[in-house]
Amino acid sequence: MGEVWLIENKDLNVKFVAKNSLIDYSQIFNQKTSIPDEAKILVTLDFHPNIITCIRIDIIDKIPRYIMEYANFGSLRDLMNERSLNLKDILHIAIQICSGMFHAHNHRRSLIHRDLKPENILLSKIYKKNPDDSQTSLLIAKIADFGLVKQLLRTSMLVDNSSSLSFVGTPAYASPEQYRYFEKIFKDSDIFSFGVILFEMITGYRPFFPTIESFKNKKTEINNLIEASLKRDNVNCPPELISIIKKCVQFDPSDRWKVEKESGKFQYFETIKKDLVKIYENHFQAYEYQFDNIPHSSTLYQIRGRSLSNIREYNYAIKCYDKVLEEDPNNIEALNNKGLDLFHLQKYEEAITCLDMVLALDTEYANAYTNKGLALAGLKRYEDAKWYFDKAINLDPNQKYAYNNNGILLCIQGNCFR
To answer: What is the pLDDT of residue 148?
Structure first.
């Protein structure tokens, strides 16, 4: 729910989506902190080709305003409404969904989507240049709408804080445990939703239309239902793919994929992805679509870094600035912003080194003098800090932070009334 605008950055020649949320999240989740938490989750998801990227977030009047990546080919729902999908398309899209969900599940906050459905799988078409100068179109699936995402707490499980009268998710794709209020939700809830999507891509309809009553009072023979549906519709579906679907949509989470963490990562979707790739390669050629190396503009990293700094996600912001500096080691804005964030992390010596690089490139960059003054003050080198604040003010009389910090230094030195 909210306003969505298609906008274009003329300098980058790139289109984005601007989304203004109109939902009062504090009422839905009964938590006043839901808005900033959601903002942090969206903007700290690293760039991944199979997840819609949030470039920037501003909180205005307690409402989040998002600048998001634009998918130019509609949604999976649009594609399924337009035509039936062949096996190659189905596997290609499913593999990418698994890739995106594996990334989200292994985010540092350990995310659960809770609302996977065809409407939330957006598609982009890109064109790859071949050696003979011809072009091949590639369809990229991108997971969107993390508005209902939940963080998995360190206890390994998560109890939904929603009231017993509310439901989060989309009923036709929600796992049975999402209907049982206050039941623990784990990552295999997303696997159930993925299984429903996979079935629908094959048949054109969902395997069942669940209600709260059916989950509480009736046990459905999932395996028989899936096999009977595919047999009735005379669908040419490989047995290995049927096995994957049946394993995904089991009512009991313990009957779904049981994969332990490996190398500190949850392997559920990675394991499914590997099985899907095997099916693809058994029926077609080697699966060679690699989207992980799709470049992102250094300007986008710069914008995202500033947004992360604004919500105090300094470590993530520095990663963005480092991406900019990989492309342009002398990017003054990235060096200055990185130096300021290193100060916020109390890494004063590293901040000074970074800001000295800025001043070596531009001796009149007032912001760098202010930021170096902050780092020097952090080291309690107050006289040196004051010199840098004064220098910033001489270069730019509008350096309000330099004035403010000069006043703080005077108070520290016992000269509060100067």
So the answer is: 56
The three-class DSSP label of residue 302 is helix
| 60 or 126: which leads in pLDDT | 126
Q: How far is it, in rounded angstroms, from Cα 190 to Cα 120?
A: 13
Contact of 402 with 373, CB cutoff 8 Å: yes
Across-strand partners of 2?
A: 21
Rounded-to-integer distance, Cα 190 and Cα 188, Å = 5
Q: Which of 296, 299, 240, 225 is nearest to 272 (CA)?
A: 240
Rounded CA separation 377/365 (Å)? 19
Quote the CA–CA distance of 159 and 89 in Å, as a whole number: 36
* Strand order across the 2-9 sheet: 2-9, 14-21, 63-69, 54-60
pLDDT at 295 over 60: no
Q: What is the mean pLDDT of residues 226-241?
A: 81
Amino acid at 279: I
In degrees rounded to 5, what are phi and psi of residue 187? Answer: -65, -25
Give the C-alpha separation, 252 to 268, whole Å: 16
